[in-house]
Write a structure and sequence with these properties.
Blueprint lengths: L1 H28 L4 H10 L6 H4 L34 H11 L5 H12 L14 H36 L4 H15 L2 H12 L23 H20 L3 H16 L2 H8 L4 H19 L1 H10 L3 H6 L5 H11 L2 H29 L11
């Protein structure tokens, strides 16, 4: 197992490098880079990203300050649309400030050399380090991702097992209907419905609409702080879990049905073992392999990609909103820094998923397979 882990760790290096190269090239040819953003601000044509998402963005230089031409001429003033009439020396100064006075490959090598020691630099437009920004937003995203994942797994696995045991019976039919309806409802629309009904939108005013904690949270006793925390999380988490059950429930059910039909289950029943002992002593371990292996990826997905709209709707300043604003504002240090870190984290979590395989079923031997 140790040799397999070492091979997988070594494989992370080219995988991560390839992902960064592809994304770096795509972003470089995308219109509206940091220089255009600053030009738009100087000319007063920048559009505040807050108007788009209702968040706390510093600005968006869309509209007339777009379309950076790849390559360009030797005249800095001619490389950027919207730069007409500006002093070429000012354009050169902007390029030096953002590092665009260097060739593309030098910028990439410099960026990756800093990322190897987890030096992600400072945000272009927030005047703060990327690490500080991520740490500031992390509690919101961890709260949403952690509780959403736990609730989805704690409900889906028992429900999937119950559906497998009662396959084709009324319980299986009507629970499938409920799960499918929940899956068909977009989380952001369900969030709006919850606000209208339970957050003072029209009917009841039971839950808060903004933030992760109350303004006086620090003055509350510890047990009130816990209650206040979950009080604020109830609607956002409920909005995210509503559509998360379907896939895992059906995966659990199908895994159990596949295992139940195998010969070792027939043998166990022939030996006189109880149905509960057969299900949880023999079938469970094998059926849960594919479910448990997907846990790390599911957690990362919910944590960093599935909460942006929920964060906007409930005014939660987390990583989803940070990433969206960075893309809108072409804040390259935030974009690439978070991409590097969370891609690395995702690759490591995939390896942890493989290790979890062995923990669940020691018969699995990764040493005998090639990576």
């Amino acid at each position: 197992m140790l040799a397999y882990i070492i091979r997988r760790l070594l494989l992370i290096i080219p995988t991560l490098f390839g992902i960064m190269v592809i994304n770096f090239m795509i972003v470089q040819i995308a219109p509206g880079g940091p220089v255009e953003q600053m030009i738009a601000r100087v000319q007063g044509t920048a559009v505040d990203a807050t108007a788009r998402v209702g968040g706390t963005a510093t600005g968006d230089a869309g509209g007339s300050a777009q379309n950076q031409a790849p390559g360009g001429s030797n005249d800095p003033g001619g490389r950027y649309r919207g730069a007409q009439g500006l002093d070429p020396e000012f354009i050169k100064q902007l390029e030096r400030e953002f590092g665009f006075d260097k060739p593309l490959h030098e910028r990439f090598i410099h960026m990756m050399s800093n990322y190897l020691v987890f030096d992600f630099g400072n945000s272009y437009f927030r005047d703060r380090s990327v690490v500080d920004l991520v740490l500031e937003k992390m509690p919101v995203s961890i709260s949403l991702g952690l509780w959403t994942t736990l609730i989805v797994y704690l409900v889906s696995i028992p429900l999937g097992i119950a559906k497998a045991v009662r396959d084709g019976q009324p319980f299986d039919v009507w629970t499938s209907g409920i799960v499918i309806v929940g899956y068909a409802i977009p989380s952001f629309l369900f969030a709006v419905l919850l606000i209208v009904v339970f957050a003072g939108g029209r009917y009841l005013d039971w839950f808060p609409l903004r933030g992760l904690t109350s303004d006086n949270w620090g003055d509350l006793p510890w047990w009130r702080q816990i209650l206040d925390y979950f009080w604020h999380l109830t609607l956002p988490v409920f909005s995210m879990v509503i559509g998360g059950f379907a896939g895992l429930v059906m995966l659990t059910k199908n895994s159990f049905l596949e295992e139940v039909g195998k010969q070792y289950v027939v043998t166990a029943r022939a030996k006189g073992l109880t149905e509960r002992r057969v299900l949880y002593g023999h079938v469970f371990r094998n059926a849960m392999l594919i479910v448990i292996a997907g846990f790390p990826g599911a957690f990362i997905g919910i944590l960093f990609t599935g909460s942006m709209l929920i964060e906007v709707i409930f005014s939660l300043d987390g990583l989803g909103l940070l990433g969206f604003e960075a893309a809108i504002n072409r804040d390259y240090p935030v974009m690439f820094g978070t991409l590097y870190f969370f891609t690395l984290l995702g690759l490591i979590m995939n390896l942890i998923g493989d290790i979890t395989y062995v923990m669940v079923d020691p018969r699995i031997d990764f040493e005998s397979r090639r990576v």
